[in-house]
Write a structure and sequence with these properties.
single chain; 466 residues; alpha+beta; Naphthalene 1,2-dioxygenase Alpha Subunit, Chain A, domain 1; Rieske Iron-sulfur Protein; 2 domains; seven-stranded antiparallel β-sheet; five-stranded mixed β-sheet; 23% helix; ARHD_Rieske_2Fe_2S; iron ion binding
C-alpha cells in the first residue's frame, strides 16, 4: 500500500483546556508509551462523496476489489474449541466453513458443495463430515472428499479435484481471520502495530461472555463510523457527559490498516460548563451509566460506592477500586496497571470492519458486515473477559441475534451498554436515508475528531484503485 498523503507541519485545532496527554499525566500510574504518544496525521480536508454509502456500483467494487484481499475477523478460538467444531462465516458474497482440525489447527473452506453448488452448512456446530443435504456428497473436516453417492456416474472426478477450496487463515490473540486471496501482507503485517501493543492485554486469555447481533438498515460504513469518534457523544449520549472527556479524546493513525480513538473516562466533558461539580459526583454518574464498567462491580466494590479521598481525583479513586476488583475477579497482580488501561475507551479499528478495545477490563469487540447489500449491515457487539486464574477455559457463548422489532437494550447480557447502542442506532437509518436525498452529495469531516473516518476511506480507495 502507498504511504499516507499527510502534512506533518499541519496541526488542527484541539479542544481548549486539558488534552488527552494532560489527563494521563495527572494519573497515579502512567500507561504504556504508545498510548500517550501523539500519532495523529493530517489526511486532508476534502469532503467524502455520499454515493460511497449507497451506490450499488460502489458496493460492487468493494466486493470485487477490497473484501477478497483483506484479513477478516471470522471467529474467536473459543467459538470452536474441539476437533470437528465449525463456524460458518459469511460476508460480501462469500461463505466459509471455519473448522478445528484434529491437531488443533484451524482451516477455512469455501462453504459450497462442488457438485451442484448448495451451501454445505448454515449453522455452527461439530461434525465428523460435511454432508450436502441435496444429493449426499460429503467431505471430511480436513476438506478431503469422503463420498460421492453413485460414484460410478462420476468417473471423471478425482479425489484431488474434489478437495474443498481453502481460504487463508491467520490467528492472533484468540481471534481467527480469513482472507480469500493467497497474496498480500501476513496477518501480523496487516495488524501492525497491534501485535506489539496487545501483548500487554493478552486477549488470548479471554473468552466471549456476551455476543449480540442485529441487522441495521444502513450501509456498513455508516454504522461503523458512528463508533469511530466521540464527537457525537454530547448530543447522542448526554447521560455519559458527567464522566466522559469526549472532546478531550485523542485520534491516532497508526498504519495503513489501523487507527485508534482514546477517550478518557472519570473526567467531566468539556461541554459541561459547571466547573464546580465534585469528583464524587463524577463517580456516582460513572457507576450508573458507563457501559463498559458499570456492570463489572459487585458488593463493596460497586463503582457508585467508591469514595474519593480529599485531594484525589475521580480517576485516581476509580483506578484504585478497579485494580482491587480486577485482581479479585481474575487473579494476577494489577497493582501497577494504569488508570487509562482500566477505565478508558481504547477503541482500535482494523480495516475494514474490526474494532477490538484495548485495556484490561472486559473488552468490547465490534464487527460490521454488509447484510447482504449496501443498504443493510449486520452489527455485532461481543464482550470478552479474562478467564480467572486456575479455572478451565469455557466455550464462548453463541450470538444472540436480535429480531427487527427488538432493541439492543432487550439483550440483558449487555447491561447498560445496550441502551447506549440504541441511542447510536437512532441515527443510522436516518443517516443512510439522508445521504440518498442529499442535495450537495457531500459528507464534511472534521480534521481531527473525524480523521479516522477519512483514514478508512483513503485506505479503501487504495484497494479500489489497484
Amino acid at each position: 500500500m502507498a504511504d499516507f498523503d499527510s502534512r506533518d507541519d499541519f496541526l488542527p485545532a484541539r479542544c481548549p483546556g486539558p488534552g488527552w496527554e494532560d489527563i494521563l499525566a495527572a494519573d497515579d500510574i502512567a500507561p504504556p508509551d504508545f498510548v500517550a504518544q501523539d500519532q495523529y496525521r493530517y489526511l486532508g480536508s476534502e469532503p467524502i462523496d455520499a454515493k460511497r454509502y449507497y451506490d450499488p456500483e460502489f458496493f460492487a467494487l468493494e466486493k470485487e476489489r477490497m473484501w477478497p484481499r483483506v484479513w477478516q475477523f471470522a471467529a474467536r478460538e473459543e467459538d470452536l474449541p474441539e476437533p470437528g467444531d465449525y463456524v460458518t462465516y459469511e460476508n460480501a458474497g462469500r461463505s466459509y466453513l471455519i473448522v478445528r482440525q484434529a491437531d488443533g489447527e484451524v482451516k477455512a473452506f469455501h462453504n459450497v458443495c462442488l457438485h451442484r453448488g448448495r451451501k454445505l452448512a448454515t449453522d455452527n456446530g461439530n461434525a465428523d463430515q460435511f454432508l450436502c443435504p441435496f444429493h449426499g456428497f460429503s467431505w471430511n473436516p480436513d476438506g478431503s472428499l469422503r463420498n460421492i453417492p453413485c460414484r460410478w456416474d462420476f468417473g471423471h472426478l478425482s479425489d484431488e479435484k474434489m478437495q474443498l477450496p481453502e481460504a487463508s487463515v491467520g490467528r492472533w490473540q484468540g481471534y481467527i481471520f480469513v482472507r480469500e486471496s493467497d497474496e498480500g501482507p501476513s496477518l501480523e503485517e496487516f495488524l501492525s502495530p497491534l501485535p506489539e501493543y496487545f501483548k500487554r492485554w493478552k486477549h488470548e486469555e479471554c473468552v466471549t461472555v456476551a455476543w449480540v447481533g442485529k441487522v441495521v438498515k444502513a450501509n456498513w460504513k455508516i454504522t461503523m463510523e458512528a463508533f469511530m469518534e466521540s464527537y457525537h457523544a454530547y448530543v447522542t449520549h448526554p447521560q455519559l457527559m458527567p464522566f466522559t472527556g469526549d472532546a478531550n479524546a485523542a485520534y491516532h493513525v497508526l498504519s495503513d490498516h489501523v487507527n485508534v480513538n482514546y477517550t478518557p473516562f472519570g473526567v467531566v466533558s468539556p461541554h459541561i460548563e459547571d466547573k464546580k461539580l465534585s469528583e464524587q459526583w463524577i463517580i456516582e454518574e460513572f457507576g450508573k451509566y458507563n457501559g463498559r464498567s458499570a456492570d463489572n462491580y459487585d458488593g463493596e466494590d460497586d463503582a457508585g460506592a467508591v469514595e474519593v479521598p480529599e485531594g484525589r481525583t475521580a480517576r485516581q479513586a476509580l483506578g484504585e477500586a478497579m485494580r482491587a476488583t480486577s485482581q479479585k475477579m481474575f487473579g494476577g497482580d494489577y497493582s501497577q496497571i494504569s488508570e487509562c488501561e482500566l477505565l478508558d475507551a481504547l477503541v482500535y479499528n482494523v480495516f475494514p470492519n474490526f474494532a477490538p478495545w484495548g485495556g484490561f477490563m472486559p473488552n468490547i469487540v465490534y464487527r460490521w458486515r454488509p447484510w447482504p447489500d449496501q443498504d443493510h449491515c449486520l452489527m455485532e457487539v461481543r464482550v470478552i473477559a479474562r478467564v480467572p486464574e486456575g479455572e478451565p477455559r469455557p466455550k464462548g457463548v453463541p450470538m444472540h441475534m436480535l429480531g427487527e422489532d427488538e432493541d439492543w437494550s432487550d439483550a440483558p447480557e449487555l447491561g447498560v451498554l445496550g441502551g447506549v447502542v440504541d441511542q447510536d442506532m437512532s441515527n443510522m437509518e436516518l443517516t443512510h436515508e439522508g445521504l440518498k436525498v442529499s442535495k450537495n452529495q457531500r459528507v464534511e469531516l472534521g480534521d481531527y475528531q473525524e480523521v479516522r473516518i477519512r483514514h478508512l476511506h483513503q485506505t479503501l480507495d487504495k484497494y479500489l484503485a489497484d
